[in-house]
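Working notes for the structural subgroup meeting. M.R. asked for a predicted model of this chain before we commit to crystallization trials. I am recording the input and output together here so anyone reviewing the notebook later can reproduce the run.

Input as submitted:
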Amino acid sequence: MTYPFGAIKTDLEKAFRLPDAPPLEQPQKQDAAELSESERSTVLFEHPGV
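Returned structure, recorded in token form:
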């Protein structure tokens, strides 16, 4: 398989590699999202079973 611009596969893998994720030592807590009244109305309208 040929790659554009004469690149080899390892060069492309290095160029587009995602950064390493930090190790999860503790479960991260997520705060509940605060919705405005308008946003809440929209959600309830679009998803009536929520």
